[in-house]
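In this supplementary section we document a worked example of the pipeline. Step one takes a protein sequence of length 99 as its only input; no multiple sequence alignment statistics are reported here. Step two produces a three-dimensional model, which step three serialises into structure tokens for compact storage. The input and output of this example are shown verbatim.
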Amino acid sequence: MLSLSPMYGKARGINIFDEVQKVLSKASVPITKLSGVATNGMPSMFIKLIVNIVNFIRAKEINYREFKPVLKELDSEYGDVLNFTVVRWLSRGAVLKRV
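The serialised model returned by step three reads:
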């Protein structure tokens, strides 16, 4: 862990990015070495974008076939992109309404 940085006011994506960039430059760490950013107490801001990108890649075979060589070319740790699904648990009442 490199840093814990409190954020005040709005915590939009650009604010988080600016804070991460400031911490990385202060520690002389290139952004390519970044493996993750964790936030506490707020919903993930980028999950919808990532889900849309993954769904676009996996939606059509041609997109998927063209994407796999990109991963190989970038020496990606993973050789494939996984499907992402959102699972919602229905309450008992909602289940009974669907029967």
